[in-house]
Specification:
It comes from Actinomycetospora straminea. The chain is of the alpha/beta class. It has a single domain, classed as Metallo-beta-lactamase, Chain A. It has eight helices and 15 strands.
């Protein structure tokens, strides 16, 4: 098991055989920190799962190429087109001439607002589709929670690793690689906060219909769950996270911060700056 003793930001760490998370972290006061992760499957046909954030492009690329030769990369699974997932797509494609992008029609259209993705290097992957990547067959699935309509999760039956994308998002007191390092209260509160932050529409859901979607996701039988905005879940935390997810429609919506909050933060920052000058 990876622990916080071996966890470093933007240093790849193994979560299963030939499977690595590339971790980054975004400070999000006053709620602590949010993970900003991506993943690499280093099999016979290496797969990059998402392409990281442009804010740390150079460091992210260095981290990925430290574990896989860009000329060997055959697949880029783009879970969706948000900047924290697709931010380094074009540099990746430039460095990986043998790679095919696994994406959706809608994602291509949305990305066209900023850049043109070479469609001749794309393959469309929808909910339930499988992808043969040489030594394993991956499964794409729409996850229960998402903040972008193009979102696809990815399951690797060879390792029982599930990339949950934004489902199981959580805020953290400090960066950590494994969710088992959190106390019970931080784990529960983080799951409920992250779920409502990513998908505020859960309050409108029919609980039974939503539970059926969650059950379909959990029936994959993942032993290890990684995601963009969560530390790695494994062991009893997997079942606990699914239990909390089932109950999300019954939780009151999160109340967003207001202008009064922002005014208070700015005033506190000005006071701190003034005291520092004194």
């Amino acid at each position: 098991m990876t622990t916080t003793e071996t966890f470093e930001i933007l240093q790849p760490y193994p979560i299963a055989e030939e499977t690595f998370v590339i971790p980054w972290d975004l400070e999000a006061p006053p709620m602590g920190h949010f993970p900003m992760n991506s993943m690499v499957i280093r099999g016979s046909e290496p797969v990059l799962v998402d392409t990281g954030c442009p804010a740390v492009r150079a460091q992210w690329l260095d981290a990925v190429w430290s574990i896989v030769d860009p000329l060997d990369v055959r697949w880029v699974f783009l879970t969706h087109d948000d900047r924290d997932h697709a931010g380094n797509l074009l540099p990746v494609l430039a460095a990986c001439p043998n790679a095919t992008v696994l994406t959706t029609w809608f994602s291509l259209g949305r990305m066209a607002e900023e850049w043109e993705t070479p469609i001749e290097r794309c393959r469309f992957v929808n909910d339930g589709d499988t992808i043969d990547v040489g030594d394993r067959t991956l499964v794409a699935m729409r996850p229960p929670l998402f903040d972008n309509p193009t979102t696809r999760a990815l399951f690797d039956p060879a390792t029982s690793v599930l990339w949950s994308v934004d489902t199981f998002a959580t805020n953290l007191p400090a960066p950590t690689g494994e969710i088992g390092d959190l106390g019970d209260d931080d784990f529960r509160d983080g799951q409920l906060f992250g779920g409502r932050l990513v998908a505020p529409w859960t309050a409108w859901l029919d609980s039974e219909k939503f539970s059926a979607v969650v059950n379909r996701f959990s029936s994959l039988g993942a032993a290890v769950i990684a995601g963009c905005h969560t530390p790695v879940l494994r062991g009893p935390r997997v079942a606990e996270a699914f239990d909390l997810l089932h109950g999300l429609p019954g939780v009151e919506p999160w109340q967003e911060f207001t202008q009064t909050d922002l005014d208070g933060w700015m005033a506190a920052a000005e006071q701190e700056a003034a005291s520092g000058q004194g």
